[in-house]
Each structure stands twice: as structure tokens, then as C-alpha cells.
């Protein structure tokens, strides 16, 4: 009996050890890992127009978190089809090889496991002619003609250069600054690029795309097509017989844009590259379908959880509100991009034609500077209001669920946290993985764009960058060259933020 008991114990120990090492998501991890490389390679080559060597050196450095890229620029477990502008990564085993193909007007689209290059023509594309005119002949900001001009009075050239050096000369090789633009008074006062990068180089925005998504949604809210505080009109999954009893029907656009939907967290619990949004980003799953399959675990609006799926639900609601598939695909360009000169921006979709506006937008530093300038100008572009003051006020208002944690997040824009005392409290910013930032500082009439290809243990701090740049730029009220309307606008914002944040703001004005 004792021998049998001993053998049983050994078997139990062996089973437990095997259970600890067994990964039920192993196949998904490999599939997503191959998809990451396929999408980054495809866009690096055919959207960013970088060399294979550059792609492996910088874009694919991100894969260090997965154990490294499959191969090198010389050879590896991948292929590149230059004629069809496509990439395949992974071996021939079922479910592991992933293809991505460039599509006009959209960028690279990831294909599902089992699809091959013969399926490319079935993928979405956007054949929309560019806005009229040659951007090289159109003055900034609508175009790219920038005339040399002396710095405005009060700007410290040496401090501006020091801030630029701070951004490019990092203490860690994992922090790779590609570009830096500083806009003051509507003019580009500093522009710098890393070797091999220029004003026309598109790179991925990652989550800076979320702020672009919020802008498009805001335009529809301004028109009355969508409503901020009405439950989103979407068909939740799985479908149930009594849809009125589904508690998810209480979720509003405000909840989604505040990252406070209350839905079951996936990406924020470390599952992004297992069974979360990574399946849509990198493995051919439908972004809209997966986003609608989460159950409610908290009261909407009460808990902050940073989830890509919350953005994708909001975008799906935008699609339903627009109604027509063609109108939906053309909407970002017609409503926003073409109107403010963002000619080099591609908003990517999944293979079903749904925008992945939580991450996959490819654009240039100058286009992002234009985007920031729209917000700095309070939603007005060249005398035409594109976005209401009410919407800009919303994106800059702290999400209620962050009230006890520093009020650091608004409506898909990041805010200066309460414990930050070295930068103006009126500043706000986009933020994307690998160091993609658009920072708007109304009190100094400044927009800052920093593009990066950071990887590993990142540490680039957008608020530190703002602090360094503002050492060179005076506050609006101190600038002798500032137009009167800007000072009046800034005064209105001071009044608003003093009411919102209290006396702490007064130190900055």
C-alpha cells in the first residue's frame, strides 16, 4: 500500500509540473508573433518606404519582447513579394504563417491564417484621389512649403536646441527618436529627423490613433449623428433573445472614450498578444466582432481600464451611425485628413474593412503637427470650425474614474496628472506605444510632435519633453509678438481650467 501511495504521489507531482509548463495559448502566441513581424515588415517596406535593413534594425527591434525577429535582413523564416507588396512570416505549418499585404489608401492589411497571396484582391482598399494642388508649393500648414524665418522674439534658440538634443541623445539605446517638431504661433520653429528619416516618412502611430478616432467621433457628435451620453447603438455579442436585459446596453460613448466601459478587461490584464486585440491587429480576426464579445463586470463609468477594445467599440458605433460602407471608409479623409492637409496619413483597416483606429494609422510627423494645431486653434482650421469647443472641452476633462488616481486621462487624450508640477496644467497629449506623442500646450501656443521607435524597457517621458521645450518658449502673455486673439483665447481657457482644477493652475499663468 505504501509503495502504491508513493507512486501516486510521483504521478501527481509530474502532472502538476506538466500543468505549470503547459501553455494553452502557445499556438495563438506564435501566430500573433508572426503577424506582428508581417505587419511591421509590410508597412515598413511599402508604407514607410524604408529598407529591409532599416526595418530589421528599428521596426523589428520591438520583437525583442517575443524573443526576437524571425531571421535577419539577410535571411530568415519569411519572404517578401515586392511585386504584390506583401510579406509572409512563419513556416508552412497550419495556423502559423501570416501574410500582410499593402492596399491603396489603407496601408498593410493582415490576412487570416490559411489565406495566401491569391486572396489579396479581396482585401479592402480606398481609391480616393488626393486633394488638389502640390503640397510642396502650398504654404504650411495646409502644405509643406516652409519658408525660412527668424525665431519670434522671446524664443531662446539655444534652449530649443538643448531640448532637441535631449530628445535625440537618449541615455538608453532602447529609446530611438525618429523626429521632433515644435510649432509655435502656428509656425514650425524646430524640425529634426534621424538619419534615414524625412518629412515624408510614415510610421505607425500606435495609440496616438485613439485621439484621431475621438476627433472623428466628435465631429459626428457635433453634427448630432452620434450622442455622447446615449447608450451606443450596437449589436452586442453573443446575441441573446432578450436584448433589453443586456446590461451592456447602458454603455455610452462617454464611457468608452473615458476608458471606463466596465467591460471584462483583456489587454490591460496582459492578454493583448494572446487572445486580446492582438488577434485583430496581427492575426486576421475581426476587430469589431471581438470587441463586442466581452461581458460587463463593473458599473460603466466607475473604473478606469485602458482597453483597445473600448476604442474599437466606439469606432463600430461610428460605422453604424454612418450607415454606408463607402461613406465610412471615406469619412476620415473627407471629414478631417484632407481638410487640414494630412495628405500622408493612412488609416488602416482589418480584412473586413473595419478601421483599427485604436492603433494602426501610418502618418508623418508633420501631419501629426497639423492635427495638434487643430486642437491648439480650438477646433478651427483656416477660419472654419471643424470641431466644437464643447468637444475639445470634453476630451480635456478628466475621466471621473480617474478622480482618485490623479486625473490623468480625458476623452482619449492624456492629461497632466495631479502630482506633476513641472509643466503647465493646461497641456494635454496623445500617446502611442514606442514613443508617439502629440503634445498641445495652449498657455505657450505650442504643439510638439515626437515620433520614436522605442522598444524594450521604454522610459521616454512626454511631460519631461514638454518641460525641456518650454524652457525655450515664453508663456503667451509674455510673448511680445503674440496676436491678440490668441491671448484672448488663452484667457478663456485659464478661466475654464481655474474653475475645473482650482487654485493650482494659478502658478502657471
How would you describe this structure to a colleague?
This protein is of the alpha+beta class. It has 2 domains: 26-121, no CATH class; 180-508, Beta-lactamase (3-Layer(aba) Sandwich). The protein has 14 helices and 15 strands. It starts with a helix and ends in an 8-residue tail after the last helix. The model is unreliable at 4-8 and 479-509 (pLDDT under 50).
CATH topology of the largest domain: Beta-lactamase
Structural class: alpha+beta
Fraction of helical residues: 25-40%
Give the distance, in angstroms, between the N- and C-terminal Cα atoms.
83 Å
Low-confidence runs = 4-8, 479-509
Order of helices and strands: HHHEEEEHEEEHHHHHHEEHEEHEEEEHH
> What top-tier CATH class of the largest domain fits best?
Alpha Beta
Q: What is the CATH superfamily of the largest domain?
A: DD-peptidase/beta-lactamase superfamily
Could you say how many structural domains there are in total? 2
Which strands sit side by side, in order, in the main sheet?
A: 6-5-15-14-13-12
Q: What does the largest sheet look like? A: 6 strands, antiparallel
**So how many helices?**
14
The CATH architecture of the largest domain: 3-Layer(aba) Sandwich
Number of E-type strands: 15
Average pLDDT level: 89
Question: What is the gyration radius calculated from CA atoms?
Answer: 24 Å
Proportion in β-strands = 5-15%
What general form does the structure show? globular
Amino acid at each position: 500500500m505504501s509503495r502504491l501511495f508513493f507512486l501516486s504521489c510521483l504521478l501527481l507531482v509530474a502532472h502538476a509540473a506538466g500543468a505549470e509548463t503547459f501553455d494553452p495559448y502557445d499556438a495563438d502566441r506564435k501566430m500573433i508573433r508572426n503577424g506582428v513581424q508581417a505587419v511591421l515588415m509590410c508597412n515598413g517596406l511599402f508604407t514607410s518606404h524604408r529598407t529591409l535593413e532599416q526595418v530589421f534594425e528599428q521596426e523589428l527591434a520591438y520583437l525583442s519582447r517575443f524573443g526576437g525577429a524571425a531571421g535577419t535582413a539577410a535571411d530568415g523564416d519569411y519572404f517578401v513579394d515586392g511585386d504584390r507588396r506583401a510579406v509572409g512570416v512563419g513556416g508552412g505549418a497550419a495556423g502559423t504563417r501570416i501574410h500582410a499585404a499593402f492596399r491603396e489608401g489603407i496601408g498593410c492589411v493582415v490576412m487570416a491564417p490559411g489565406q495566401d497571396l491569391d486572396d489579396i484582391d479581396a482585401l479592402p482598399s480606398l481609391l480616393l484621389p488626393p486633394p488638389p494642388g502640390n503640397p510642396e508649393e502650398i504654404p504650411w500648414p495646409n502644405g509643406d512649403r516652409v519658408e525660412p524665418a527668424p525665431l519670434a522674439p522671446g524664443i531662446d534658440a539655444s534652449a530649443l536646441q538643448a531640448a532637441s538634443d535631449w530628445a535625440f541623445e537618449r541615455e538608453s539605446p532602447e529609446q530611438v527618436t525618429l523626429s521632433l517638431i515644435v510649432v509655435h504661433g502656428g509656425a514650425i520653429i524646430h524640425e529634426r529627423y534621424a538619419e534615414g528619416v524625412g518629412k515624408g516618412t510614415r510610421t505607425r502611430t500606435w495609440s496616438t490613433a485613439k485621439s484621431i478616432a475621438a476627433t472623428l467621433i466628435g465631429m459626428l457628435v457635433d453634427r448630432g449623428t452620434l450622442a455622447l451620453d446615449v447608450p451606443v447603438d450596437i449589436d452586442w455579442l453573443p446575441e441573446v433573445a432578450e436584448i433589453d436585459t443586456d446590461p451592456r446596453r447602458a454603455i455610452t460613448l462617454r464611457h468608452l472614450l473615458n476608458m471606463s466601459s466596465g467591460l471584462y478587461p483583456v489587454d490591460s490584464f496582459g492578454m493583448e498578444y494572446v487572445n486580446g486585440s492582438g488577434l485583430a491587429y496581427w492575426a486576421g480576426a475581426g476587430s469589431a466582432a471581438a470587441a463586442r464579445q466581452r461581458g460587463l463586470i463593473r458599473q460603466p463609468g466607475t473604473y478606469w481600464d485602458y482597453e483597445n477594445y473600448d476604442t474599437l467599440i466606439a469606432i463600430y458605433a461610428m460605422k453604424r451611425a454612418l450607415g454606408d460602407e463607402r461613406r465610412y471608409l471615406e469619412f476620415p479623409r473627407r471629414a478631417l485628413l484632407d481638410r487640414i492637409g494630412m495628405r500622408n496619413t493612412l488609416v488602416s483597416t482589418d480584412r473586413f474593412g473595419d478601421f483599427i483606429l485604436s492603433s494602426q494609422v501610418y502618418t508623418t510627423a508633420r501631419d501629426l503637427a497639423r492635427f495638434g494645431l487643430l486642437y491648439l486653434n480650438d477646433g478651427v482650421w483656416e477660419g472654419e470650425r471643424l470641431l466644437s469647443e464643447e468637444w475639445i472641452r470634453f476630451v480635456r476633462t478628466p475621466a471621473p474614474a480617474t478622480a482618485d488616481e490623479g486625473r490623468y486621462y480625458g476623452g482619449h487624450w492624456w492629461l497632466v496628472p495631479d502630482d506633476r508640477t513641472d509643466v503647465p496644467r493646461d497641456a494635454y497629449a496623445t500617446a502611442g506605444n514606442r514613443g508617439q506623442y502629440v503634445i498641445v500646450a495652449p498657455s505657450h501656443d505650442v504643439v510638439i510632435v515626437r515620433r520614436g521607435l522605442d522598444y524594450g524597457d521604454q522610459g521616454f517621458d512626454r511631460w519631461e519633453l514638454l518641460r525641456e521645450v518650454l524652457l525655450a518658449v515664453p508663456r503667451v502673455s509674455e510673448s511680445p509678438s503674440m496676436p491678440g486673439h490668441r491671448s484672448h483665447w488663452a484667457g478663456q481657457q485659464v478661466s475654464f481650467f481655474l474653475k475645473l482644477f482650482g487654485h493650482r493652475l494659478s502658478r502657471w499663468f
